[in-house]
Amino acid sequence: MGEEEELKRIRMKKQKELEEKIKERMRMQEIDHPLVVTDENFEEIIRKYPLVVVDFWAPWCPPCRMIAPIIEELAKKYAGRVVFGKLNTDENVRTASALGIMAIPTLCIYKDGRLVDQIIGALPKRHLEARIEKWL
């Protein structure tokens, strides 16, 4: 009877994990625009979603403004699979500094809360997409 109880406990745990993943996917489907990322919510956002792309930018930066519409498009296209965020480096110096962001735009790709890729500079949409697709 001990083995049966253990199997039942494991099944229930796995079922609960699957239900949580499904709920998370449903929440992600609703996010079809870049989230505003700040010093206060950065850690929460990169840990909350399985795949997050954070755009480190500033309003005075022409290349940042150039890729902004691309980030918007990609957020719509990948809704439910990737969450995009934008962190204004002028207003959120602590996070940018802690991560060693020295040039903008810089896109950081986080998978399961871990930095897995970084793109520095304004690249064409197809190049950005290819780098993101690599982590899906």
Query: Roughly what is the average pLDDT, rounded to an integer?
Result: 92
Number of strands: 5
CATH topology title of the largest domain: Glutaredoxin
Largest sheet: 5 strands, mixed
Estimate the helix proportion, in percent: 40-55%
Q: What CATH architecture label of the largest domain applies?
A: 3-Layer(aba) Sandwich
- Note the run of SSEs as H and E: HEHEHEHEEH
Number of domains: 2
Instruction: Say what oligomer this is.
Output: single chain
Topology, please?
Elements: H1 2-29, E1 35-37, H2 42-48, E2 51-57, H3 62-77, E3 83-88, H4 93-98, E4 106-111, E5 114-120, H5 125-133
Parallel strand pairs: 1-3, 2-3
Antiparallel strand pairs: 2-4, 4-5
Describe, in plain words, how this protein is organized in 3D.
With 136 residues, the chain is of the alpha/beta class. It folds into 2 domains: 1-30; 31-133, Glutaredoxin, CATH 3.40.30. The chain contains 5 helices and 5 strands. The protein has a 5-stranded mixed sheet with strand order 1-3-2-4-5, sandwiched between helices. It is elongated. The mean pLDDT is 92.
